[in-house]
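Retro notes - structure team

What went well: the batch runner handled both jobs without manual restarts.
What didn't: labels got mixed up in the shared folder, which is why I'm recording both outputs here explicitly, each with its sequence directly above its tokens.

Job 1
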Amino acid sequence: MSVHRLAPGLYRVRLRASPRPDGKRQAISRTVHGTEAEAKRLERQLLTKRDRGQLSGKSGQFEQYTDHWYAESLRRGSPETHQHHAYILDAHITPRLGGYKLVDITPMVVRTFHGDLADAGLSGTTARKVANLLATILDQATTDGLLFRNPCSSLRRRDKPQIDTQEKRALSADEAQALLRHMATTDCGHMTTERRQQVHDATMFMLGTGVRPGEAMALLWQDIDAKAGTCHVYHNLEAARGREPRRKTTKTRRGQRDVPLPPNLISMLKAHKARQSEYKLRLGRWSEVGYVFPSLDPRKNPGGPWTVQAFRLAWRRLIAGSEFAGLTPYVCRHSYATRLRGLIPDEELSRILGQSSSRVLQSTYSHVDPQTMDRVRDIIAAIL
């Protein structure tokens, strides 16, 4: 019975199960993606189950291989990706497939696994991410010579989770103005005036540039070229659990781009910078990194990075109870793409948005707004 550290943030808990009728006690192994304290907490829970006779030895070869795969994956990728993989393994893959031997995971088992994900209420998009990670792990097992063929490769398209294709909402010009007015005038008792104004300014910036929330939070003042009327988007803000937020380059080369800034947005940024300077002087201490949209919390790290999670929380609180409740900051990006599509070629617009190809734009970031619907009605009415 002990806790073994396999890698940073990865622990294995080992103990003996309750005795079987033949008197033997099978070894139990459980993996913990987290801290040593969490591993020891699991150890205590397993001991309690064993004392009650509720712990049986069902640990399989696949769970052991996922430990090996995860430990190797820590050498590449970002902490945010590691955290995401750890969650999928702990919440979805290991509980359902951990007791299998690798050679016993057949296409039928994988099809049943996909069905279980749907029965559990997971969205198509989430289920596809889980299925993709399972396929990646089994593909590595095939490369390692532990499987003759990846069982996921034999599945037909209809047997795999289907990505949700529901069209997301985009704001019309009037709705965007109404959203900004609401943010500028709403008195939110649990939010300071400075933070409310920064949520407003960040929202206006995203509506006017189409950048992702993480890209907006990673911007430094040196990335703003007011004279040229452009914004240099080269970084994204990453914040994994238990780690300090950090700026990292965008995932793809096309994500590194220059975005045009209209005159009214440049004026807003100048006013925003002036308010930021006043707040910095009033506060007396400031992290001189130069974030455009920094943390304003005087208790922690004023002037430091403002995480996307913190921005989303402030956004939700500010629009709670309004007609915009339930929207996320990504509605700004959807709206930007919808308003510009048709005015400039898709390939050029996808480069401004930092998409890997124009196909993503065509399938995700294009919407038919109410004004277009009205124009279609008028045209058809004239024909009929």
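Job 2
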Amino acid sequence: MSERDDPGGAPGLRLPPSAVELLGGPVLGHVVSLNPDGSPHVTGVWLGMDGDDIVFASMYAWRKTKNLMRDPRVAVSVESGAFHASGLREYLVVRGRAEVVEGGAFALLRRLAETYMGPGTAFPPDELAGRTGYVMRVRAEEIGGVGPWTGAPPGLPEGHRGSG
């Protein structure tokens, strides 16, 4: 993990190559946004990378989009198909802030459909090509989980003493 220098943009962390590789595959992302009452809203999304940002899209202003327009705090998690040496399945958790950009959703979803549904897939359907939709750009502030992106194996919580 390294800080990124993005003049004019929000500060954030640069995801390590292992995390970028995971996010470039057909892994379903779990996005957590905050409802107006502060309760969490979780939804599954297709994820991709654009520069250092994690991106996902919506053709309509669904709850996740409205939540992120109001409060940009977000968490994204994905599960890897690999197992850590500890025996745990690897997973990535990224906490950060999302920028909601109007427009570009159709093109992004078409690109992601190639990864998630297969080459030559025409999704979303052509009749939605005129809709602007929304692209969410997540800038990482904290990276966690279990896997090479954390730089250390999972361990016991600080202050924990084993029994026996």
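One thing worth noting from job 2: The radius of gyration is 17 Å.
We'll revisit the folder naming next retro.
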